Amino acid sequence: MASSTGIAVLPLVFRVIALLALAAAVALMVTNHQNSDEGRVSFKDLYAYRYVVASGVVGFTYTLLQLPFAVFYVATGNRMIQNGLLPEFDFYGDKVMSWFLATAVGAGFAVTYELKKLLGGFLDSIGASDEEKSKLDEFLNRGYISTCVLAVGFLCLATLSVISSLNRSPALSARKGFFG
User: Fold this and answer.
1) What are the pLDDT digits (tens) for 10-23?
2) What DSSP designation does 58 have?
3) Distances from the Cα of 35 to the Cαs of 49, 131, 132, 135, in angstroms?
4) What CA–CA distance (Å, rounded) separates 73 from 27?
5) What is the pTM of this model?
6) Which of 55, 60, 148, 168 has a Cα at 20 to 30 A from 1?
7) Which residues of 78-98 are buried (b: 16+ CB within 10 A; e: fewer)?
8) How many beta carbons lie within 10 A of that of residue 129, not counting itself?
């Protein structure tokens, strides 16, 4: 049987992974740009990519805010705030953040897929150079990569959402929570 400290570490691990994934997703998307004869294309030119960045920043901030509480719980075995507010905040915050990130993941994948299909065919029809096709492909592939990394952050927060719902359970609250 696992010790309660080992089980309490699990949310901390998920929060750290989510924090790193969200930071990486934002960094990858913000640095995603291509220069061409027509000008510079960056993530700012696509609303869906802006939304991916914004949701990554909001998710990162939320996770960063939650991290000290998780560290304190693992270190001491007690909640930093004893009035029952933290399990409620974890429950609702994790739910809202995970679904917010899920919408950004969907938007990032959808716009990248549609642009690859639409613009790839368009560039073929106008006889664009292989270099231009390669630049577009590189830009959109980087959008895919950033969105995939954001999806890792979403999965971590979705898992934390389940864990925080277990911690709210009245049957488990007498045992100081199931996972911390």
Assistant:
1) 889 999 999 999 99
2) H
3) 17, 11, 10, 8
4) 30
5) 0.85
6) 168
7) ebeeeeeebbeebbebbbebb
8) 10
